[in-house]
Amino acid sequence: MSYSLDESAAWLTSGAAAVAILLIAGAAVVQRRGSSRCAGWLRLLAVSAAVAALTGWASWHALEQRQAAPMQEAIASKHSCLVEFTLTQMVSSSVLEDPGIQEDGGRAPLGQRFRAQLTHLDCGTGAFRLDAPVLVSGRLAAGSSTEPGTRFAADAKLRDIQASSRSAARLSLDAPAEQLAPPGGALAVGATLRASFLMLAATLPGDGGQLVPGLAVGDDREAAEDLVAAMKTSSLVHLTAVSGANCALVTGAVLVIGRLLMRPRLERLAAASLALVAFVVLVTPQGSVVRASAMAIVVLAADAGGRRVTGSSALNLAVIGLLVISPDMSLDAGFALSAAATAGLLLGAGPLGERLSAWMPRPLALTIAVPVAAQLLCQPVLVLLDPRVPVHGVTANLLAAPAAPIATVVGLLACLLAPLAPPLAVVLAWVAWLPASWIAAVARVTSGWPFASIPVPEGLGGVLITAIPAALLVWWCRERGDSPPARLRRLALFAVMALLVTVALGVGLGQRVGSGLTRPDPWRYWMCDVGQGDAMLIRSTAGVILMDTGPESEVLDACLTEAKVSELAALILTHFDKDHDGAAATALPLAEQLIVPATGEAHGEGIVRDAATHGIPLVFAGRGDVFTFGDLALHVLWPARTSSGQPSVLSSNDGSLAVSVKPTASCRQACVSLIALADLGEARQNELMSEAPPELLSADVVKVSHHGSRDQAAELYRVMQPKAALVSVGAENGYGHPTRSTLDMLTAAGAIPLRTDERGHLVVAGSPDDITVWSPPQALAEAAAVPRFSANGWRASPLGDTALTGRAPPRSASRSRRSRTP
After folding, report:
1. What pLDDT digit, counting tens, does each position of 485-532 carry?
2. Do 543 and 401 lie in a common domain?
3. Given 417, 446, 475, which residue is the final one in a domain?
4. Residue 296: CB partners within 8 Å, gap ≥ 6?
5. 388 - beta bridge partners?
6. Nearest to 211 by CA among 200, 220, 202
7. Considering only CA atoms, which of 240, 235, 339, 237 is closest in space to residue 292?
8. How far lies 721's CA from each of 632, 677, 744, in Å?
9. Contact of 80 with 174, CB cutoff 8 Å
10. Most-buried pick from 379, 420, 608, 646 (CB within 10 A)?
């Protein structure tokens, strides 16, 4: 018998409630028989079961909202509906620009993404009122507000979304959404204050100017990607946005001021509560802020009633209450990290400080204990997001910690005074800029230290490696006594911790030492072995782009799984032959955008119509267009539009999309350039060479055109001067690809030909001066060479130098018979 998701939730909730009742009854029976300790444990388990039932009931109710029948029918119909929604959070600004749409003399953003609450749905069969969280992608009408609380109306299609998402569905706008109403009341005041402060912060220079808005009001949109990457590596990323500590600073400051003014206790508590609400409105309800605010409300309410509440009790009540009110908070990484860090401070900071004070002054011991305890409790959550452990995180936090509250408080004052007293706000902003610049400098310096992070296994293995030491450390800090059993327990504790640390270091060092024999990370380009066809993954800090799909969905799926790619920032189809777009139907649902050549042929393709049907933003790209994805810029080299701006009349290979991929100034790792020539023949390659800017025709790596056919422009390859030439080709393909003349031409141009039929996947990493190309170990054994390059030329592995001429031994018979269409 199978159960639906809502039926399973009902059974689990009912079961937890039943267990709670049984445990309460059991505790009562055991208590009467005189076993108080056992009764206490049963009551604790009963409370836990009751909490599970309560949160389960809330989740069940939220699940009903997510699976509301009108929404499911709209998703299944794939038709446009009239929707109304209220914006709650901007996720990202435009990733791509559509040169075919002009607004106010400039390019219009193709797609923005933001979270919203869907409030109205009308698909032609009736209007429904809803309250469901959705992820919206598309454009807003010119001049619209992007502040939380803004209401919009639009025609849109509802698309399904993964079950683990905080949203119930994806909303793809057919046209720019029209603003119905701006934020009102307190939200409008908060929006005005933020806008004034952001204008002021924009005048501050350098990294400090980028961090001040995040530290003060939680707006980190101006922080450059390389700065955010440095903050992540140094474990300071929590400072790029408002943290729960900011709520404590605000409420604490109001309480202190009230005490200095000798106001009654209830007035002080009321003023602190109002200040807290105003602060949350100003910085918007982020996960960490919501957690801290809920804890503060518990503490203030208890204080108003003349009772005291411990920190751990306040944390438990706050987390349980928030999960009951909004179960989707359980999917918010910021909320989870904030709760874990607070638990670390409450459970471990004090005892650890006491232990350390035996070897150092107490103030220094407490200063060290705070970041250590927070880092240990957060790390099991962090490894699920990024399977690495920051080595210098505690040091970086020690150095940055004194500056953070100064930048936060002074920056917040500057925000409040920006519309009222601009000159004073400017002075305060510059004062906040100084500690913010120090924090940024600490992040950049410590992220560049050797062994900045240690990789750990992904998933459950990484969680255990980081969670067990945290639990053991908390237990050790609370272990008392100096009896032989206590000493034995401490010895066992240190032995287990030493073993786990050794395992973690062994994994990290093993990955570094064996980097020449194992897949490099971070990689930049991944040419999938799809037989006689093309499929290449391009990795950027904004996501992974897939260029072409190969002919078969199963083979593409296997490559995406091995590369651990589940979402695509964009799908690029260079042209519409089966060996390039045969698996497009598999890749399209994963993509945020679809980019195709600006040709008449592309406008009539079925996959293009499918994209429009599913509300996926579509771009027809031609020569001169530039698309920026994080630390990469994709410059379109071909096809050319007509003089009137109309799509090119070229088709198939002659009209295929060729691009030059260049790292941007924000690139920090694997900054390797690429030119991908799709299936262009010699004549079109010569036209491309004559029209393209010279700076776009140099590349570290080239994707050889048309699977290495003889139809190549040798002069173009000499101009490009690539170090590596990737040839996507099927074994025994029957077309003679790659031809001997093309392989010789590549060698004459200074490039090393590397073929998927001999080596399998080709994964490019390293730097322009030290490029690494990795292939699966089995393929390497058969090809008898590890491809690796340096600024001084080819460095062959001890296995041989057959890759230098491209005459490697053939793959195994089972593999070599896998031919593909041309």
Report:
1. 555 655 665 665 566 555 555 554 454 444 434 567 788 999 999 888
2. no
3. 446
4. 247, 248, 251, 272, 276
5. 455
6. 220
7. 339
8. 20, 14, 14
9. yes
10. 379
